[in-house]
Structures are given as structure tokens and as C-alpha cells.
């Protein structure tokens, strides 16, 4: 039987779960079992937990449906736990180093207490000093084990479940479980505090609670706020039934109603039913107020009296909520600014959708693919594509557009119900209530993104204000993902309250819907000679370089790779105005608007660290990584995984190695196919040709997830044929 069972619910925190599990398994005290609680065997966190279970026999994942909530997940973990003591750790929190050793030592001193309370650290998600809110509460308690009556202020209701260790046999004997619903920690802390006979305190930080940027879900507006009163009534009724003496019942009552009054004083948390909340809270106050309870002094005491008296109007007058005044947007011209402000006061146009890609570089990428599908499935929508001046020619003739910065640009942004972008809209764009912002992204992240860039000085200097970046993230309602790796990375890099849509990238649909004739058309459109092997060379941008550098002598590569090889050069989109003057065997396709056409035309891909490799992998064609400066790139830009250890194909470090791979044909070897298959299984999870349809049906048509086209298994997908295959057929 292990000394400790650590139960870790993981719903909604797959991106950070590994840090929580690592913090447990790295403890110097190893007599433990670790129980991650996942939504289902195929949930994002389940794959993370399964990987740990394969490597460490102390890890035993279990499953609890999301509908059971946090309480259900914890109760599921409790049912299978075997440890003498149970600890609860949220999936995005961590145990501090040496925590379990200190707990074990303290329990050796106190003996087997029912509950051992300890300190925790509330760490700001970004910057600021951590706080230790439990320290003042625990400071005045007895030194050894003690009966709860000796420290009546230690009621448990102000401490989260993960700020205590609970003896498993105590919980079993008293049939204690987490109460259903929201605010379960309030109910749990009260119930265990009332039932405990012998407790102790460890005046040391055990858990580092990492505050979420978007704040606690419990603070969000909604009907769930009423469930706080359910938990309060549950605890007060149990205290009354247990005959809790007044010296313990009074501080318990006061602490519970401090929590109630914090919600009652914030009517914005209760968009409807605030008066009903106040009325029921007043009834609980009058019904369960212990004998001898004295109202607190000052403003808090006034609130208690008004609540007990049911004086709703007076209470609102005393603690009226302050509403933050929103800042007006800042179009450059005063007249445009005024017109935009006026347009924001007009009703949303429920049939208007606005699209933008790469800050207005043209009709392309995921927004263009979604737009094309929306025209078929949601013809009621009127769509406007945003482009920068000079790029109007990129928009098809039958697609409505607006030039960025124009009067019309601000007008459609103010009125649109739907806003779709693969980057971000301008700083001054206001997120209106009722509007829907869809962030499609434009690649699978290998390099560090978002706030993860902050520790890389070269990148951070170019990024600008992370505060402003996150302000733009706050506008997102949906964020698109092509694979679980991306979902978890976006969660960390762009923390926000958006919903992740694991539907695949719409721009990649064409890799499964295109025919051999489409491939031939793409090759001829790019000028690829018939019968030649077209190798796409697509290097990424380097933050430590100024301007574009090919990084490779392409003419020399063609000569060394074989007489049949031609190179399609596609520089990063930062350099999409043309970057290279080719001579015959090198065709510069940088300015070509469709990366998808370029990929369809290519028989193989050479890239360094560009995200194009993840998209191209859908075609199941050879990929070669040219990594002549991997160490420098990794240190200056930062990466999420070691590409050299998990490449999609052969890796070359020198031009000679690269040419030899093609000359000898090893890019088509069985080993290359094996590497590519593993890469595709990880990064082509949700791309199956139906991504755009899923997005349109879910976002524009409002269809539930279960009504969307199911994912086609990877083994059953048929990518577009390569030119050589089509020619043979």
C-alpha cells in the first residue's frame, strides 16, 4: 500500500498536465501512486497520461466523463486509490520539490491524523509576486496533532481541496465524497472539517497553484453561481445535524457567508436571478445562523445585516457593481474613428462574415478554404474578404472585398456577426457581444509561439507587447487545431477562454480532394517541365537574420542531386514579393498565392524547420529535413520538440548529404516511409478532407459536435497522387 495517492483531474488542461505529473514523479519521496483522471480513453489528456503509465508503473490513469465535473473526477480517483493518504492536485498545478518528503516527515511526527492541512502558493500566471493565503490561517494553530475545537477558525471551507492531505480510511469510514456541482471545494472542506476528530498542520508550501490568465471558471457569469448556495446549505445542514458546538459553528458560518457575500456583491456574475440568489442567501442566513453569532464590524457587518433582512435594494445601493468603461477603437482618421464608433452602436448583421489571412496578404489559407465551403453550405451569409492595398487582384472576381484601413473596412468589422482570421485583427477592433471570432491559425507549431516566446530575447523583441497580444487572444471564441500537439501548445502559448476545435486545417482539405488532373494542372501552372522530379525547398524565417537567405546553393544542389531534378523555391511568407532569380532548374514560387498548389505539384519536400512539413505530410510524399543550423535555431527561437529525434524523413546537415539523399534515392527508402508514417500519425490526426465542412457546420450553422462528419481514420484516407504515380497510371 503506497503512503500517498495523488489524484489529478485533467479536464481542459492537457497542455499543462505533463508538468503536473512530472512534479509528482520527480519527488524525492517515491512511495506513491499517481492517478490521472481523464475524460475518456481518446481524450487529449488520456494520451499524455498513457505515455506516463507506460514509463512508470506508479501511474494508473482512470476515466470520468466531463459531465461528472471536477467532483466526479475526484470521486472516481478516490474509489481506486490505495494510498494511506490522498492528495488532490489540479492538472495545471504542481507539487513543489520535496513536498511529499515534508508531508511524510510531518505525519511521522503527528501520527495518523484525519486531515493534514498545509500551505500553498498562488503563483501569478505571468508576472508578480506569489502569495501564500493559507499561511495566516495556519499560523495560530497548535504545534502537534489537535482536535478541531482547539483551532475553531480552521474550518476547511476557505482552503481548496489540494491544500490538505486526507487519511483514506477516515474518508471511507465517514462515507465522505465530493459533493456534486460547482464550488465543490466549499462543500468538501466543510464536510471534512466537520467530520474530522484529529487534524494537524504543516507550515510549509506543498502545492504551487498556477493562476489561469482567464481566471477561475467559478468566477464566470452564469446560472452555476447559484450552486454556491447549494454547497453552503449542505455544509450548514450537516453542521446542525452533527450538533457542532457554537464555538465551531460560528466561524464556519461567518466564513461561508463571506464567500456568499462576495458573489452577492457582484451582480455581473448572475446575469439573471440575482434577486433570487440574494433572497435564498438571506433565508439561509436566518435559518442556520448559530446562536450567539455576532455580526462582523464595518462594511461586512452591514452587508450581513442587509442580507439577513432581505433588503435587496439597499444592498445593491451599498455595493453597486462598477462597470469598466470600454476604450474606443483607434482608426487613424478622426472621421473614420467617429463613424466606427457609431457603427458599433448599430445592430450586428447576423448574415455578415468577414475574413482575413496573413494580415491582408490575399485570398488564401484557412480563411479562403472556409469561405469557399461556406458559400456552398451557408449561402445565406454575405462574405467580405479583407486585403491590404495592392492585393485586390488576389481576390477572385466573384468575392466581395474591403481594403484594410478604408471606411468600408471599419464598417464591416463593426457590423459582422462572424470574423475569421488566421492571424489577428487590428488592435483597435472591438469584440462585440454576440459576435463570433474564429482563429484558424496558419500552421502546426514547431517553434515557440505566443507568450512562450517571452524567454527568447531575439524573438520577444520583435513580438512587441505580450499584453496586447493577449488582449487580441481574448477576442477568440474558437481556435482551430490540426492535431493534439497543436491543441496543447495553443493552450499554453495563447491562454484564453476560447473553445478548441480539433477539426483539422481547411486549407489541407485539398490534399485529399484533389485528383491527378489537379496535380498536373498545378505543375503546369508553375512551369514544371513534364517528366521532371519537382523538389519543393521551403526554408523558414530566422529571427536572427535580416532579410531572406536561401541557406543552400540551389543550382549546385540540382547538379549534384541528378539531372532530372528541378527545385521549387518557396521562401517564408514574410518574403512573398519574390526572393530569387532562378536559372532554369530553380523556379521561384514564393509569390504564388496558393501554397497548396505548390505542395500538390511537388514530388518531395526539403525544409528546415518550416511548419509546411506538417501540411505536406498529408500527401504522404517524401520529406527531407535540411538542418545545417539546428542548434542555433533551437537556442534563438525555441522549439516544442526535438525535430532531430522525431523527423518526418531523412535529416541532412550539409549540402553534400542532402544531394546524396536524392541522388541515391534514400528519401524513398523503407526507413524514410517509417519515419513519415510515425510523423503523420502524430501530426495529421484531424486532416481528412472534411475540415472546412466541420467548421462551417459548427460555427456558422450552429450544429452540435455529434452532427458533424466523423473523422476518417488515417489508414482510410487517400491523398492526392504524386505526378509520377499519375503519369504511370
What does this protein structure show overall?
The protein is of the alpha/beta class and 729 residues long. It is built from 28 helices and 21 strands. The strands form 3 sheets. Strands 3-2-1-4-7-6-8-5 form an 8-stranded mixed β-sheet, sandwiched between helices. A 7-stranded parallel β-sheet has the order 11-10-9-12-13-14-15, sandwiched between helices. Strands 18-17-16-19-20-21 form a 6-stranded parallel β-sheet, with helices on both faces. Helix 7 (184-195) runs parallel beside helix 8 (227-241) and helix 8 runs parallel beside helix 10. The longest helix is centred in the middle third of the chain and has 19 residues, at 246-264. Mean pLDDT is 90; it is low at 320-328, 574-579 and 725-729.
Report the mean per-residue pLDDT as an integer: 90
Shape: globular
Low-confidence stretches: 320-328, 574-579, 725-729
The neighbouring-strand order within the major sheet is 3-2-1-4-7-6-8-5
Q: Could you estimate the helical fraction of the residues in percent?
A: 25-40%
Secondary structure: number of strands = 21
Largest sheet: 8 strands, mixed
Radius of gyration: 30 Å
Quick structural overview:
The chain is of the alpha/beta class and 729 residues long. The chain contains 28 helices and 21 strands.
Keywords:
alpha/beta, 7-stranded parallel beta sheet, 8-stranded mixed beta sheet, 28 helices, 729 residues, 21 strands, globular, 38% helix
Write the layout of secondary structure elements.
Layout: E1 4-9, H1 14-25, E2 32-38, H2 44-55, E3 62-63, H3 69-80, E4 85-88, E5 94-95, H4 99-110, E6 115-123, H5 135-139, E7 164-167, H6 168-173, H7 184-195, E8 199-210, H8 227-241, H9 246-264, H10 274-288, H11 298-309, H12 312-318, H13 334-343, E9 349-356, H14 365-377, E10 382-387, E11 401-403, H15 407-415, E12 416-421, E13 436-439, H16 457-463, H17 466-473, E14 478-481, H18 484-493, E15 499-502, H19 510-513, H20 516-526, E16 533-538, H21 554-561, E17 565-569, E18 586-588, H22 595-601, E19 604-607, H23 612-616, E20 623-626, H24 630-637, E21 651-652, H25 655-664, H26 670-683, H27 691-700, H28 723-728
Parallel strand pairs: 1-2, 1-4, 2-3, 6-8, 9-10, 9-12, 10-11, 12-13, 13-14, 14-15, 16-17, 16-19, 17-18, 19-20, 20-21
Antiparallel strand pairs: 4-7, 5-8, 6-7
Amino acid at each position: 500500500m503506497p503512503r500517498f495517492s495523488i489524484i489529478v483531474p485533467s479536464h481542459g488542461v492537457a497542455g499543462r498536465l505533463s508538468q503536473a505529473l512530472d512534479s509528482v514523479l520527480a519527488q524525492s519521496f517515491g512511495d506513491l501512486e499517481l492517478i490521472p483522471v481523464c475524460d475518456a480513453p481518446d481524450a487529449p489528456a488520456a494520451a499524455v497520461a498513457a505515455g506516463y503509465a507506460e514509463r512508470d508503473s506508479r501511474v494508473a490513469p482512470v476515466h470520468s466523463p466531463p459531465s461528472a465535473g471536477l467532483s466526479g473526477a475526484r470521486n472516481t480517483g478516490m474509489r481506486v486509490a490505495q494510498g494511506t493518504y490522498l492528495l488532490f492536485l489540479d492538472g495545471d498545478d504542481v507539487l513543489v520539490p520535496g513536498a511529499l518528503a515534508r508531508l511524510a516527515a510531518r505525519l511521522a511526527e503527528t501520527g495518523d491524523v484525519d486531515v493534514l492541512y498545509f500551505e500553498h502558493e498562488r503563483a501569478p500566471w505571468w508576472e508578480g509576486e506569489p502569495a501564500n493565503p493559507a499561511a495566516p490561517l495556519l499560523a495560530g494553530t497548535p504545534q502537534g496533532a489537535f482536535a478541531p475545537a482547539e483551532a475553531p477558525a480552521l474550518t476547511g471551507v476557505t482552503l481548496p481541496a489540494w491544500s490538505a492531505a486526507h487519511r483514506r480510511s477516515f474518508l471511507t469510514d465517514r462515507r465522505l465524497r465530493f459533493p456534486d456541482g460547482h464550488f465543490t471545494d466549499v462543500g468538501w472542506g466543510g464536510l471534512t472539517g466537520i467530520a474530522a476528530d484529529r487534524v494537524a498542520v504543516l507550515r510549509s508550501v506543498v502545492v504551487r497553484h498556477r493562476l489561469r490568465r482567464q481566471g477561475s471558471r467559478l468566477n464566470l457569469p452564469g446560472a452555476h453561481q447559484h450552486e454556491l448556495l447549494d454547497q453552503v446549505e449542505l455544509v450548514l445542514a450537516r453542521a446542525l445535524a452533527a450538533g457542532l458546538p457554537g464555538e465551531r459553528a460560528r466561524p464556519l458560518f461567518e466564513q461561508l457567508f463571506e464567500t456568499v457575500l462576495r458573489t452577492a456583491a457582484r451582480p455581473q456574475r448572475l446575469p439573471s436571478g440575482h434577486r433570487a440568489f440574494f433572497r435564498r442567501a438571506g433565508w439561509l442566513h436566518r435559518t442556520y445562523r448559530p446562536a450567539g453569532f455576532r455580526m462582523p464590524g464595518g462594511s461586512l457587518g452591514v452587508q450581513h445585516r442587509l442580507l439577513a433582512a432581505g433588503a435587496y435594494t439597499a444592498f445593491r445601493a451599498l455595493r453597486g457593481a462598477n462597470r469598466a468603461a470600454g476604450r474606443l477603437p483607434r482608426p487613424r482618421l478622426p472621421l473614420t474613428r467617429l463613424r466606427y464608433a457609431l457603427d458599433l452602436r448599430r445592430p450586428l448583421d447576423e448574415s455578415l462574415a468577414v475574413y482575413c489571412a496573413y494580415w491582408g496578404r490575399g485570398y488564401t489559407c484557412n480563411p479562403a478554404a472556409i469561405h469557399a465551403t461556406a458559400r456552398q453550405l451557408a449561402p445565406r451569409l454575405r462574405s467580405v474578404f479583407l486585403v491590404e492595398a495592392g492585393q485586390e487582384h488576389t481576390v477572385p472576381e466573384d468575392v466581395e472585398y474591403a481594403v484594410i484601413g478604408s471606411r468600408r473596412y471599419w464598417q464591416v468589422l463593426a457590423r459582422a456577426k462572424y470574423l475569421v482570421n488566421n492571424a489577428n485583427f487590428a488592435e483597435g477592433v472591438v469584440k462585440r457581444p454576440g459576435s463570433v471570432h474564429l482563429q484558424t491559425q496558419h500552421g502546426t507549431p514547431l517553434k515557440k509561439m505566443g507568450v512562450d516566446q517571452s524567454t527568447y530575447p531575439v524573438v520577444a523583441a520583435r513580438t512587441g507587447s505580450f499584453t496586447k497580444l493577449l488582449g487580441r487572444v481574448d477576442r477568440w471564441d474558437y481556435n482551430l487545431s490540426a492535431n493534439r500537439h497543436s491543441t496543447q501548445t495553443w493552450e499554453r502559448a495563447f491562454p484564453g477562454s476560447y473553445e478548441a476545435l480539433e477539426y483539422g486545417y481547411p486549407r489541407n482539405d485539398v490534399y485529399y480532394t484533389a485528383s491527378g488532373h489537379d496535380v498536373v494542372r498545378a505543375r503546369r501552372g508553375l512551369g514544371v517541365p513534364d517528366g521532371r522530379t519537382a523538389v519543393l525547398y521551403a526554408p523558414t524565417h530566422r529571427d536572427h537574420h535580416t532579410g531572406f537567405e536561401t541557406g543552400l546553393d540551389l543550382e549546385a544542389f540540382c547538379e549534384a542531386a541528378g539531372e532530372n531534378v528541378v527545385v521549387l523555391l518557396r521562401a517564408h511568407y514574410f518574403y512573398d514579393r519574390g526572393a530569387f532569380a532562378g536559372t532554369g532548374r530553380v523556379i521561384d514560387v514564393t509569390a504564388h498565392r496558393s501554397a497548396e498548389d505548390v505542395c500538390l505539384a511537388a514530388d518531395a519536400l526539403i525544409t528546415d524547420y518550416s511548419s509546411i512539413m506538417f501540411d505536406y505530410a498529408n500527401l504522404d510524399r517524401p520529406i527531407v529535413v535540411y538542418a545545417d543550423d539546428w542548434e542555433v535555431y533551437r537556442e534563438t527561437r525555441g522549439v516544442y520538440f526535438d525535430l532531430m529525434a522525431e523527423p518526418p524523413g531523412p535529416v541532412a546537415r550539409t549540402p553534400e548529404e542532402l544531394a546524396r539523399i536524392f541522388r541515391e534515392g534514400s528519401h524513398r527508402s523503407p526507413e524514410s516511409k517509417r519515419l513519415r508514417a510515425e510523423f503523420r500519425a502524430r501530426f495529421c490526426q484531424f486532416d481528412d478532407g472534411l475540415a472546412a465542412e466541420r467548421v462551417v457546420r459548427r460555427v456558422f450553422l450552429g450544429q452540435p459536435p455529434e452532427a458533424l462528419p466523423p473523422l476518417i481514420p488515417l489508414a482510410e484516407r487517400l491523398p492526392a497522387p504524386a505526378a509520377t504515380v499519375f503519369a504511370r497510371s
